[in-house]
Amino acid sequence: MFCALALFSLISTTAAQAPQIVEAAPAAAQPAPLPNLQEVAEGDPIPTKNLLQVFRDGGLLMYPIGLCSFILLVFVFERAISLRRGRVIPRPFVKRFIEQVKDGRIDQDQALALCEENQSPVAEVFAAAVKKWGRSCVEVEQAILDSGERVTSRLRQYLRLFNGISTISPLLGLLGTVLGMISAFNAIAANGEAASQRELLASGISQALLTTAAGLTVALPALIAYLFFSGRVDRLIIEIDAHSQEVVNAIASDGWKEKKKSPSRRASRSTAKAA
């Protein structure tokens, strides 16, 4: 009995609410009207920011990050010009110098004059070897090593600067992130309005993200430049060492020299073989 009454009351309640649901359903099912494209086009333009505005929004730490990027750009161009293979190891000079030394067409004074006239890093190493002309291989190689260390030091110039920028820039971005979050939470604590708190939090997070992105944007090219130029310097040093060894063999008193067979010896050998 009680179950029947409860079922009846449930059915009557559902029947009473059904018209409202039916009437509300079409209204909810109706799609929202599409905006007029002409009105959108003629409306207010989408707000955008240029690079200067983004730089200002990042806070004070954007200035040292910008300085790091400027220094990086300047010295990347400088190293790209200074470490050209044609400037460090001019192939025409190296080929002509080694051929003349091997053939004995120039003496010590002429070889030294050629090196001083060229003034390239490889010519500096050759000049140190020529000054030990006629000495033992050990003395000539030691002179090459001493000169090679000085040349290597000049070729590796400013590479530490790239490494330093790649390390400092992310730290500056991280510091800007921390300062932005601190200022945002301090402003939220001082302001009790909920709407203002959301705006202040969004502003602080925006500043934090801008400084982090700027620091990483500078650090990545700096690291790539450091690895690229370090590899180029290593390849140039290996090539200079290979050419220097040829000079050692040509001018050292006990250096390995390719013996040229005289025509009389070759004729005698051929006669002996024929016999």
From TrEMBL:
GO cellular component: plasma membrane
GO biological process terms on file: protein import
Basic residues biased stretches: 258-268
Similarity section: Belongs to the exbB/tolQ family.
Chain segments annotated as transmembrane: 60-77, 161-188, 208-229
Primary site of residence: membrane
Taxonomic lineage from the root: Bacteria, Pseudomonadati, Planctomycetota, Planctomycetia, Pirellulales
Keywords: Cell membrane, Membrane, Protein transport, Signal, Transmembrane, Transmembrane helix, Transport
Membrane topology: Multi-pass membrane protein
Location in or out of the cell: Cell membrane; Membrane
InterPro entries linked to this entry: ExbB/TolQ_transport, MotA_ExbB_proton_chnl
Region entry Disordered, spans: 256-275
Key word Transport present: yes
Name the record gives this protein: MotA/TolQ/ExbB proton channel family protein
Domain MotA/TolQ/ExbB proton channel: 119-240
